[in-house]
Amino acid sequence: MKGYKKYYFNKIMWYLLTLIIAVLLNFLLPRLMPGNPVSAIAARTANGMTDQTAVQKVYEDYVKTFGINKPMYVQFFQFIKNLFKGDLGVSFIYYPRTVSDLLAKSVWWTICLQLPAIIVGWLLGNVLGAIAAYIKGAWDKAILPAFLFLSNMPAFGMAILLQFFFAVYLKWFPASLGYGYDLNPNMSFHFIGSVIYHYQLPFWSIVLITIGGQAIGMRSMSIYELNADYVKYSRFLGIKDRKIVKYVFRNAMLPQITGLALSLGTMVGGALVAEMIFSYPGIGTTLMAAITGRDYPVISGCTLIITIMVLIANLLVEILYGFIDPRVKAVQQD
């Protein structure tokens, strides 16, 4: 257990260091964007005013409210102080709504879309890769290449393709939004049915681009394991294939778990693009609106939430890997 403590302590320290660097970049990068969003807000507020002194007073009040008249290092320490309080600031374009309020409504839409889609895509990809390696035939020569082709499409390309074919051409599913535009969020069966109906295209656009990459990795590892000496020896001893295959695919899954951890960031990025294409009410759509409006607090809040989600998911995979990989167990026990 002492070895395990050291293993997990090192992992957690590295993730904390990554989080600190991410928070620093999260603060700096939006503020390096060109343009002054406060000027746009002040212009909207002062629309119709003819007194230039009053217009200037409106602008100065907004600058003071958002604190952008202070030196960058003062803004940073204030940002960190507020972060520990759970205060991500006030949105520029949705003023006076807070960033926390905006993200609280959008983050659950993103989690409920991305987490199931990534897991389903990963599982289906591994099953397809294992079947292609073991059964071969049409699975290996036709179905696997087809999914590999789909997975190499960019996320926005897959989303637009599904949107055009199933929403515009066939009219089977809605082209955008997370639920009917004439509905208010509630727990009624009608609303839940509308959410599930609007959920299909964003969900499958993420799943389809996930399957191919996972399948090809699982196929390669399964073929390697099927040709290993222990498999040949087990067959020579007369052990049934059904029992051998169970160990083969369990060993082949270990690198796939690592692959899942490494590719989570890319998957999440692709999923956010899908949200933007379908105008799904998640973090991706909120982030797009914030970038367009140069809304620094919302951009920082979105990227921080995305970073934390990816880091937590990777850390959980690392912890799981430490328990299921016999090699890690052996090293920690030495």
TrEMBL record:
Ranges annotated as spanning the membrane: 12-29, 107-135, 147-169, 189-211, 252-278, 298-324
Location within or outside the cell: Cell membrane; Membrane
Provenance organism: Clostridium oryzae
Protein name (record): Glutathione transport system permease protein GsiC
Membrane topology of the entry: Multi-pass membrane protein
Domain ABC transmembrane type-1: 107-317
InterPro entries: MetI-like, MetI-like_sf
Keyword Membrane listed: yes
Any one GO biological process: transmembrane transport
CDD domains the record matches: TM_PBP2
Gene3D superfamilies documented for this protein: MetI-like
